[in-house]
Amino acid sequence: MHDTTALLIELGSVILALGILGRLAGRVGFSAIPLYLLAGLAFGHGGLLPLNASEEFIATGAEIGVILLLLLLGLEYSASELVSNLKTQYPSGIVDFVLNAVPGAVAALILGWGPVAAVALAGVTWISSSGVIAKVLGDLGRLGNRETPVILGVLVIEDLAMAVYLPLLTALLAGLSLAGGSLTLLISLGTVGAVLYLALRHGRLISRAVSSDNPEMLLLVVLGLTLLVAGVAQELQVSAAVGAFLVGIALSGEVAEGAHNLLVPLRDLFAAVFFVFFGLNTDPAAIPPVLVPALILATVTALTKIGTGWYAARRAGVRTAGRWRTGGTLVARGEFSIVIAGLAVGVEPRIGPLATAYVLLLVILGPLAARWTEPLARRLTHGLSGVRGLGGPGGLRGRKAAPVTSAEPEPEPSAESASVLPASEPSAPEATDPAPSHG
């Protein structure tokens, strides 16, 4: 069969299968991401029906998918909002690092893999998946929720931290001198600083230059600019995703709104391809031997991410329901974890299968945690309150019933059942909580 013919047949089959799976997920009110991943496992190496002709095309499409996910996320916020968010959320970034990087480092040392592998596995467990989380927020209709800027702040801090972490890890893996590693680090930090400066100081000029009344011209210019900046950022040791996100931040007003409307269908297509590609590169036979340690590590770091989200949302004055949603949304790991594991395989080959199983578990659990953490926490909290009320020292069995003198604050409406609040609208903390610290 001719190569082009095979490419079209394979690509058409994959996209058609994704469409069917997406419709099925929509019918049952479930995120399609886990189904896309399982489809990738079925089509990938060691799966039921390996893809040969379209694998390279799908790999490129996956890169574009991550770039578009972060571009669309950046279009939701202005540069001033980003800087303000970073200033208020940096303590949450420190807590995020401590709670989520340390378990990976400890696990590597327990397994006897050495300090360099410990640094690598710390990165695998630390960084949440911006691509998965951006998709989940869109699927659940939470982009306007009160807690979404908090989630975004944590993700941006993580992504910007990669501009420091990845050059250092690369230097450690290559055995470079301190001078060589420092030069790479300075280049990456300079790139991020330059793009942020342009977004803050000259964002209006960039928007005016990009603006067009012709939808076709606007689409071509915005997409071309995004891919160009992402590629340059990648070349300068900065994540392409960070570059795309900063392009979205730099655009504002009618240009951002118009670009958003034009790019949403492209984002959905290529994002689906990204998740399939992740599954394609996973050999199902490599997962069972490392499933137990991966499951333990996934359980521990899912809980630590929920704790991170709770802390970050509490600092921002988000009420209890939003705190649980923040923590659950941050659980997923993905693209950065796989990149880090790929870099470290040369030093410790066993890190590859473990990281793959770990990420696969959390990228499936992530959308479920985003949806169900808050309802489950609410049920458990109410259940414990009921037990205390019936049998505790101050409960109904220990004293006479007293009339209710004050009502508890009304719970924050969930995003699935109520209209969402605008991201900029202030929300006071619950009456039962102390005033949030903004350190």
Give the helix tally: 15
Percent in strands: under 5%
The main sheet comes to: none
**Outline type:** globular
In the CATH classification, which architecture applies?
Answer: Up-down Bundle
Which CATH class is shown?
A: Mainly Alpha
Q: What is the helical fraction, as a range of percent?
A: over 70%
The whole-number mean of residue pLDDT values reads 78
Q: Report the CATH topology name.
A: Na+/H+ antiporter like fold
Provide the low-confidence segments as ranges.
392-439
Question: Could you tell me the radius of gyration in angstroms?
Answer: 23 Å
| SSE succession | HHHHHHHHHHHHHHH
Total domain units: 1
DSSP summary, beta strand count: 0
Question: Which oligomeric state applies?
Answer: single chain
User: Could you tell me how far the N terminus lies from the C terminus, measured between alpha carbons in angstroms?
Assistant: 64 Å
> Structural class per helix/strand content?
mainly alpha
Could you characterize what this model shows?
The protein has 439 residues and is mainly alpha-helical. It has a single domain, classed as Na+/H+ antiporter like fold, CATH 1.20.1530.20. It contains 15 helices and no strands. The model is unreliable at 392-439 (pLDDT under 50).
List keywords for this structure.
single chain, 439 residues, mainly alpha, Na+/H+ antiporter like fold, 72% helix, disordered C terminus
